[in-house]
Amino acid sequence: MAQFPLLSLVIWVPIGFGVLTLIAGRLRGIDVRWVALVGALVSFAISIPLYTGFDTTTAAMQFVERVPWIPAFNVDYYLGIDGISLPLILLTTFMTVLVVIAGWKVIDYKLAQYMAAFLIMEGLMNGVFASLDGLLFYVFWEAQLIPMFIIIGIWGGPRRIYATLKFFLYTFLGSVLMLVALIYLYLQTGNYDILAFQHQPLGMTAQILLFLAFLIAFAVKIPMWPVHTWLPDAHVEAPTGGSVILAAIMLKLGAYGFLRFSLPIAPDASHALQWLMIVLSLIAVIYIGFVAIVQRDMKKLIAYSSVAHMGFVTLGMFIVFMIVENTGALAGTAMGMDGAIVQMVSHGLVSGALFLCIGVLYDRMHTRQIADYGGIVNSMPIFAFFMVLFGMANSGLPGTSGFVGEFLVILASFKANFWVALTAAITLILGAAYTLGLLKQILWGPVANARVAAMPDLSAREFLVLGLLALSVLALGVYPQPLIHVMDASVSNLVHQVMQSKL
Amino acid sequence: MNFTAPAFTPAVPEMFIFGMTCFILLVDVFAGPRRRAVAYWLSLATLVGAVWITAVLPHAPRLTFDGMFVNDAMARALKLFTYVITAAIFIYSRGYLEARDQFKGEFYVLGLFGMLGIMVLCSSHSLLTLYIGLELLSLCQYALVALDRDSSVSAEAAMKYFVLGAIASGILLYGMSILYGITGTLDLGQLAVFVAGSGLTHIGLVFALGFIVVALAFKFGAVPFHMWLPDVYEGARTPVTLYVGSIPKIGAFVMFMRLLADGLGGLHPSWEQMLIAISVLSMAVGSVLAIAQTNIKRMLAYSTISHVGFILLGILAGTRTGYIAAMFYTLTYVLMATAAFGMVILLSRRGFEADNIADFKGLNERSPWFAAMMLAAMFGMTGAPPFIGFFAKLYVIRAVLDIHLVWLAVVAVLFAVISAFYYLRVVKYMYFDRADDKSPLAAGWDIKWVLSGNGLAILVLGIFPAPLMALCVRAIGF
User: Fold this and answer.
1) Counting Cβ atoms within 10 Å, is residue A125 exposed (0-12), middle (13-18) or buried (19+)?
2) Chain A residues bordering chain B (beta-carbon distance below 8 Å)
3) ipTM entry
4) Which bin fits A63, alpha (ψ -120 to 50), beta or left (φ > 0)?
5) Cα–Cα separations (whole angstroms), residue B297 to B102, B157, B229
6) What per-residue confidence (pLDDT) applies to B118?
7) How far is A72 from chain B (nearest CA, A)?
8) Stated pTM of the model
9) From the CA of B375, how many Å to the nearest CA of chain A?
């Protein structure tokens, strides 16, 4: 028997269930929420064998599927995962289950379309992580904009139309330049195989141009300063589920792009432009950290904190060159990369959880202004417990997943340059300042008003969602080894690839 | 002098359409006002017959009528596509025309004659046949625009179209006559040989090329010869707009192919520069001006202009890939435009024209299915995957990168982003706004089924584009 097409299933089963949900929405007497939940659970179940069957000793692509798709362009339907994409696929399938549960009672307009949009988006995002063909990657990459555009536009807040158009046009602008870069690479290699792109020798000018084209696409998506301005708008206006997916998965697409395209395809350009990336990352960490402190809207605060955290991810990726320059050895380079990837996964869990917490409050009070809350701990003690936990994880408290990633990146930075590391480490203070500031104002103190006093504590459904996330955050914080072990071989392979000049 | 009868076989589809159209004209006269549907059903039967005849014809390329008429793979593919789209146009239009007492045989007769013009264009292998085909198409279009004779808007649009179109035809004819004067031949094959040998040495050739490019750009609706297009699209009745906005683009494309690529291929470096200018201008004007429109027909007119710019990108590359890309783009554009105008017809009903973008408000509440079809058309035109429009844009951009015009590719994708805005606005009206008017769609099952097929084709071909690409690759032989 040929290998079971697990990756295809993990892409197409959610999409199929999305369509089923839409159909079920037209029929009477079927609760679409159950259809959607079954779809999300089945998809999650399919992604588990990917983890259990994964061979951690090799950096080669696994679960490979390859059939010709468009012969005129030499485009293949070519899937495969390595230790970098596997954790992100698991994160996607896991978060979608939570989002479906979180939307259970909250959405009252076009429920079937809401659930279907998330399921379809799940499949498309898995497709991005699993594609080994550049054009297939691009198709998934662009296609998942459409459901997100609709999610923000239909179920979003009052300024949703402005926010969703900004979101779409920003990302579209970024990605069309990537398309030009992909076609250029195709004309060099004769197909769209990403692995062939990675081995293609390229001149310095070509590399720089390619790097910049990819940079625009991925920087918008991550987002890096100064092209981050769509994110706070999109986050604030999106419904809770949309914010969760946006923060947990979509931002990771950009970071994944750096790992899969920019670094291995244009290593010399990455090396030459590392200063740019490090400066932009540090600006994101420091400046955006300060911006987050002054926010009055809870969602906006978490959105800016996402930008700052993603700055750590890009720092961890691009610090490798400086480590080699400084120490002359590869030792410690993998640490930066590891830190970046752990940070991606951890931020997915933590920011997703924080957006869910804000969603819990918003469902009760219909406001996101920090000033409207205060003393929540008196009426919702269980909620306050979770909120504090996720807040601590967000500010990088040891024992939570947030600590692992930041710590690894800062350690790696110390090997590279003391000042870079010191600047990056300021985030520990800033992160604590804005997160704890938020907690102080909404959780502690006297009860702000009668409506806060009347808020019921978490329902069983909300408890389940936040509880699962809390367990994951703690597990990853206390024992990150399973995750690091999975990506070990791929990361060291990537580091070697990046250090080899392609000129 | 002895006369040998030319081989008629390659032209059988044209003769069949011609005969049937004359027959429909007669039948319609005698059927009287009560049995208008006869012309409709006969037209559809004619199209089915034409598909069959074209498909069973021998496939080897063949010249006939002293080399004036050719039936090659490109002609066959384009003709087949034209039949299908024409049938879709007729089916979409029926309910609309019936509701407005416009359900007359003339619409079908003119539509079929115009289609015959496109077929002659597809098969032309001489300046003369090309001109005949073009005039047949153009005259039918002028008359179609004026079909609603009591409407002053339509009359104005038709007048504008006729006067400007006649000037363009005159310019084309002038260019052709100069060409004939210099080369002494009307045959495109001999023209190509002459031009390849001479290059742009003769000043007359420069003039001829200039005139021809201007006229072709006018017929295609490319900037700066686009002025007629928005007015005609807006002024004509929606079924006529659907007609004018879809299959004549195939005719325009094939004119570029036969005249510039085949006939004047040797002058490629010269017309490449002209087309670069026209293409960039078309993309710019089309993308930017469409943003300001509130009338959906006008908006789609400007969007056409910008798509024409993209099609020209493929043609100006002057490579085989470029021609394939341009053909692929033309076919997908026609498919998407047919769906979009079909949606405008679907939303219209007796006494109500869904001419404004705001009329799409809350369509997702009234009919999620057709909102999704319009979504496919709009995202398809944007060039977002997984819809077919993405591969069309991909193909032309690849063709442009192939000839190392990186800046042109970057300009093209930037205009694609700008144009995304107004397509998204339609989606915004359909999905994000609540409906003022909650009435369900009043339309026949025929338009609903065919329009669904049309919308699904945009998605399905976007996921499996290989067959359509293979068709284009086969069509552009040489």
Assistant:
1) buried
2) 22, 26, 69-73, 110, 113, 135, 138-140, 142-143, 145-146, 149-150, 153-154, 160-161, 164-165, 168-169, 172-173, 176-177, 179-180, 183-184, 186-187
3) 0.86
4) left
5) 20, 13, 10
6) 94
7) 7
8) 0.90
9) 10
